[in-house]
Amino acid sequence: MSPALVGALVGLMGGVGVCLVLWRLAARRITLDDRIAPYLRERPRTSGLLAERPGHTPFPTLERLLAPWADDAGRLLERLGSSSVSIRRRLELAGGTMSHDQFRIEQLVWGAVGLAVGLLGAITLGVVRGTPFVPLLAGVVLCAVGAAVARDQLLTRSARRRQDRLAAELPDIAELLALAVGAGEGPVGALERIVRSTRGDLAAEVRRTLTEARSGVPLALALERMAARTESAPVARFAEGVAVALERGTPLADVLRSQAQDARESARRELMETGGKKELGMMIPVVFLVLPVTVLFCRLPAAVRVGQ
Length: 308
Description:
The protein has helices at residues 3-27, 32-36, 60-80, 84-94, 100-128, 133-182, 187-197, 201-214, 219-228, 233-248, 252-307. The chain is an all-alpha fold. The protein has a domain at 164-267. The chain is flat and about 140 Å long. Residues 174-297 form the Type II secretion system protein GspF domain. One of its GO terms (cellular component) is plasma membrane. It is a multi-pass membrane protein. Keywords: Cell membrane, Membrane, Transmembrane, Transmembrane helix.
């Protein structure tokens, strides 16, 4: 190798090295963005699909893969059915531990089961009877939507039944509380005795109220929150009446006895209204089924005799 070529290679390597050093020094220069970055809240740069989410099912990997489609289906169900606010309110009224996301996932599972049943029925009808495609498709869609709507209606019925149970348990709870207060116990002690000696949905609500009172919330405010958590009018009147009695110093035993009497009168009125509605409902089979059959049995022998 000639000395000129060696000198050219050495010069080239030296020039490249000097360029790299200068580029690195320029890259390490502190900019304005670097100076103010520690004082700003930076958004995470990771993808939303890679972000960790709390799992609601025993299969977290499958849940993360299906999460985008589940969110889209949840928004579709919200347009077709009840809103998220309504669902959260009914979940609270039902008294369960299920969250809004868990309910949406369960509703999607019901819809998937309804879709599978509709597809099975459509395939069976198409193979056996040769039914046209459009009615089969409509039946499949109705099965899927009907299953999702059925889960929503089941939540509504569960919330309504729990409110009925709260109203039914109120008179006994109020009378026991009146006896405890009349025997000399304070409001908190009487509520604790009620929680220890009773079971049921209203006892669970009283237990939750006591927990809030022990955590530092005033008992009157905890009772007002209890009234806001229920849609049962007797329970709301009971909680608000006890809260007002505690704030104004009214004799609590008399208030509780009045509340128990009002609750029993309200339950009696509701029973009478339900009986009146059932009586009208019983007229339908009597008029349209029993009466025509009775008239037929009365007229049939005469018609047979005239025919002979």
